[in-house]
Amino acid sequence: MTTGRRLFVSSAAFGIAIAVAYWFSAHNPDGAVLLGLMAVALVFAAGYMFVAERAARLVGDRANASNADASGEPLGVFTVASPWPITVAFGAFLLLLGLAIFPVLAAFGLALLLFGLFRLGRESR
Amino acid sequence: MNTATTAPSSLAHHGIIEWLTSTDHKHVGILYMCTAIFYFLVAGLLALVIRAQLSQPEMTLVGPHQYAQIFTLHGTAMIFLFVVPFALGLANFLIPLQIGAPDMAFPRLNAFTYWLFFFAGLTIFSGVFVNGGAAATGWYAYAPLSEISVSTGGGQDLWIVGLLMSSISGILTAVNFITTIFLYRAPGMTMWRLPIFTWEMVATSLLILMAFPSLAAVLAMLFIDRHFGGQFFDATAGGNPVLYQHLFWFFGHPEVYIMILPFFGVISEIIPVFSRKPIFGYTGLVLSAFAIAGLSMGVWAHHMFTTGVVTNAFFAAVSFLIAVPTGVKFFNWVGTMWRGSIVFTTPMIFAIGFMLNFLIGGISGVMIASPPIDFQAKDSYFLVSHFHYVLGGGSLFAIFGAIYFWFPKVFGKMLSERLGKWCFWLLFIGFNTTFFVMQFLGVMGMPRRIYTYPALPGWGNLNMVASIGSLIMAAGVLVFAWDVVTASLSRKHAPDDPWGGYSLEWWTTSPPPEYNFTSLPPIRSERPVFDAKHPELVRSGSS
Amino acid sequence: MRNTRPVLATSLLLSTTGCGVYALPAGATTQAQVLRQDWIVFTLAGLFVAVVVFGLILFPLFAWRRRSNDYPVQFSRNTKLELIYTIIPLLMVIALFAVTYRDEIIVEHLGAHPANTVDVLAFQWSWRFHYVGTAINIEGTPNAPPQLILPVDETTRINLTSSDVNHEFWVPAFLFKRDAIAGVKNSFDLRPIHIGVYLGRCAEFCGFDHALMTFTVRVVSQTDYVRWLRAGGSSIVPSAEGSTL
Ligand code: HEM
Ligand SMILES: [Cu+2]
Ligand SMILES: [Cu+2]
Fold first, then answer.
1. Which helix (H) or strand (E) element contains residue C122?
2. Over pLDDT 70: what percentage of chain B?
3. Is B441 within 8 Å of B459 (Cβ atoms)?
4. What whole-number distance in Å separates Cα of residue B343 and Cα of residue C71?
5. Count of CB atoms within 10 A of residue C92's CB?
6. Contact pairs from chain B to chain C, CB under 8 Å
7. Helix, strand or coil for residue B278?
8. Which pLDDT band holds residue C7 (cuts at 50, 70, 90)?
């Protein structure tokens, strides 16, 4: 098992354990639901780690790997500047601000948000 | 896969457009940290107003309405706009460097999270300009007080949507950190060779993913209550004010560990370097981070001991248990210094100050984890003292330690050791003067969040002492500002590895080039740079 | 009785959590006597930990300050030691939990037959005290705080709630507070042991006049209390010996 996978599996086990312990010792539905949802999310993440085989073959996980071993491996992501992240953030800002105090702004914000997301998606393909 | 196309460029040559559109993790990190420091200064000024108002009984510098806005903005800014973003910014800068990666897994997402946080800050503070003023219900805005029937102004709405933005930003950042650390480690950088800071950020990110959704949920519910006829928290309409507390603290307690785990990481980076030893008990430190993270999900209602509707024994027991892994960390730091070769640079003395202050905060923390004690301490100045010892004496001191430690790496300039020591001693003395006496004020019966108090025996004296201490701290912050200004203007260039550092960020140039590394040393332990520079000292069979 | 514990503990507490006015109040109910014991136990335990750990942090700074440029031995683990310093704190917190658990049960215990019952209603920004079984209602305002009259050496049941936002009933001299939440009825017993006047206040921020949401508790002799009840709560209680705030 890779360390990452072990991490999520043990978190999920812990999540279930504490949710059960809480249910039986505190008899409080609010907290039990919160812990239960947390446990479900962790189990989902742990399950995903099992499906995602990719993590198992990382050169970063090979204790004796050298730089030469990594040739041809993906090093990570190289991006250049992009105006769309700040645009999307600005759109989200206007949307929420609009919801809070001035509805017309919200429509404009939503439009900007969607447009920015669209451009962001095109750019990262 | 793309390849590097642009030539490395120095920070100074970046124009405003580059800063607005950059997706480089280093730029994003710097933006986060600088914005955070800005809010620290703003919230610090607000704290000085608080201390001026409370310096004597029956002061009339500010009225009740202003005072409520001031402590709400002070607390909100310190938590959501200073400590957390600073930690995220530092992690943004350091994680790719420490694991030998060229950038974060999702650089555009990364830039987006910063800008969302940026606008969140603007939103929260813009409440000052609307009718009725900024939010005035404290940093946890308990319903029904924060419901529209009581808090009618738009400031409360701006606070809600501002925090909503910052919680979304935090969740996305956590996803980015975990993905980066799991997938983009350099050859040989196994998980069990990660620097402790990076490990602590794995734990922090997990906590963010568990806790922030609860914040987003409670804010959304409050907003629905306020504007769309919801009745979640309105008791007269069948709602439940206690549910608000559950949802808020299910986020709120993990939040305090989100504000300290990164800084446990910082301390675990600084102490070994200046003791010239490897970190003691690496495995124990990593496991304790996850033990703390896990247990902290089961203690939220220690903030609700006096509500009379939660099972205090469960929450007290789990809260006490957290002291154990926290203690492990202290002993590991002591073990690291043991038989070392300790040198008192500015980052090191801040780390020592951190340990001393945090210990006091930790001890008062164990005290108030006991419901019988909390019955007196809760909502009193004892509590104000406690959380400032962990957040101010802890996180803040670690932040200063981190700045003095990594400033040369980030900006290629050295801060002054002489000014750094002045800054430390002023902050340390000022801090303890301000907050130690508050413990006594608390047990004597002074509640938090009051804008005025009668001249009860001893109250005026202790409050005056606390206010004087805050001025001493302010002087320390001024020294720091002066240090940063003069260092930035100086032409002297910082060396790549001024301290004899251990982790990969000290291998590359100061500041690092665009894609971080032109070469990497072999990675065979958690301190590859040390191994490469001191082959004669490499522990045999170490892993 | 617990309040006959040795003077030693009290004087230790004075030297630790303060002295004179700068200290934890003595505890003016039987419940507070128990709560006070917790403060003493935890303060002493905390001081002990503080001394040990401060020592452990400060000692290396003096002992192993850098004197030469040589590198020290590069050791980094000692599993046995690490186990020891995990287990000892664990045992300590288990002991502290036992004390906490026992005392919380004592303090929160609701007697079967309280001598008197008072319904306390918190609202923005004052209090109303209703003496159950009588027509006595005492209501205050921020500028004219109400007074809660309690008989000494007799148990009074308080039923606490709020009619609007969250408030919190706190009498520092009783070392005790409890939330007033709309829709929740919180009950607790108070058994004052000294005649006197004590300051009480709201401890949960509840809006702008939160700072003025105070009240006083006046503990009177049982005969005075009965006389006051009979007079329908209108007569001023004659004697106020040993006033303390
Ligand atoms: C720089 C010196 C500081 C001073 C003099 C100071 C002073 C104070 C005071 C007097 C209060 C209580 C106000 C009241 O209850 O009426 C307060 C509240 C608070 N402070 Fe600070 N503080 C400082 C730094 C910090 C730092 C560094 C943090 C966090 C990182 C912080 C976080 C908070 C929070 C969360 C509250 C609670 C606000 C609320 O009640 O909603 N403070 N501060
Ligand atoms: Cu907590
Ligand atoms: Cu109040």
1. strand C116-123
2. 97
3. yes
4. 12
5. 18
6. 269
7. coil
8. very low
B475 lines ligand 1 (CB under 6 A): no
Q: Which of B324, B341, B366 sits opposite C86 (nearest CB)?
A: B324
pLDDT, tens digit, 9 for 90 and up, residues B123-132 = 999 999 998 8
pLDDT band at B22 (very low <50, low <70, confident <90, very high): very high
Q: What is the token pair recorded at A18?
A: 């504490």
- The structural domains of chain A, with segments of one domain joined by +, span 3-70, 84-123
**CATH number listed for the domain at residues B20-537:** 1.20.210.10
The b-or-e profile of C58-73 (16+ CB within 10 A means b, else e) is: eebeeebeeeeeeebe
Residue B450 near residue B442, CB atoms below 8 Å? no
- Average pLDDT of span B455-483: 96
**Who's near B246: CB < 8 A, 6+ residues apart?**
A30, A31, A34, B300, B301, B304
* Crossing angle of the two packed helices B261-275 and B312-337, in degrees rounded to 10: 20
Q: Please give the span between the terminal C-alpha atoms of chain B, in angstroms, as a whole number.
A: 32
- pLDDT tens digits, one per residue of C127-156: 999 999 999 999 999 999 999 999 999 999
Phi and psi at C66, nearest 5°, equal -65, 120
Confidence bin at B198 (pLDDT 50/70/90): very high
pLDDT band, very low/low/confident/very high, at A46 (cuts 50, 70, 90): confident
Chain A, residues 44-63, CB within 8 A of chain B, namely 54-55, 58-63
Q: Cα–Cα distances in Å, from B395 out to B81, B84, B291, B355, B444?
A: 14, 10, 19, 10, 27
Which of A38, A75, A83 comes nearest B21 by C-beta? A83
> At what angle are helices B282-296 and B312-337 packed, to 10 degrees?
160
**d(C-alpha B31, C-alpha B14), whole Å:** 13
Q: How many helices (H) and strands (E) does chain B have?
A: 18, 0
In angstroms, the first-to-last Cα distance of chain C is 25
* Positions of CATH 2.60.40.420 in chain C: 116-230
pLDDT tens digits for range B304-357: 999 999 999 999 999 999 999 999 999 999 999 999 999 999 999 999 999 999
Partner C contacted by B415 (CB < 8 A): no
Contact (CB, 8 A) for A59 and A65: yes
Domain C116-230 has CATH 3.40.980.10: no
Q: Residue B469: what pLDDT?
A: 97
- Are the C-beta atoms of B387 and C185 separated by less than 8 Å? no
- pTM recorded for the entire structure: 0.93
Question: Which class for A17: exposed (0-12), middle (13-18), buried (19 or more C-beta within 10 A)?
Answer: middle
Are C126 and C140 spatial neighbours (Cβ–Cβ below 8 Å)?
Answer: yes
Ranges of each domain in chain B: 20-537
CA terminus-to-terminus distance, chain A: 32
Looking at chain C, the domain(s) classified CATH 1.10.287 span: 5-108
Of B68, B137, B363, the CB nearest to C46: B363
Round to whole Å and give the CA distance between B214 and B226: 18
ipTM for the predicted complex comes to 0.92
**Residue type at position A30:** D
Residues of B with Cβ-Cβ distance to A88 under 8 angstroms: 112, 115
Give the pLDDT confidence score for residue B310 in this predicted structure.
92
Give the amino acid at B134. Answer: A
- CB of B4 within 8 Å of a chain A CB? The answer is yes
- Bridge partners of B155, per DSSP, are B134
Residue of A nearest to B14 (CA): A81
Q: Which of C64, C61, C74 is nearest to B341 (CA)?
A: C64
State the DSSP code for C180. Answer: E
Do residues B103 and A78 touch, judged by C-beta distance below 8 A?
Answer: yes
B31 vs C: CB within 8 A: no
Assigned CATH topology for domain C5-108: Helix Hairpins (1.10.287)
CB of B239 within 8 A of CB of C181?
no
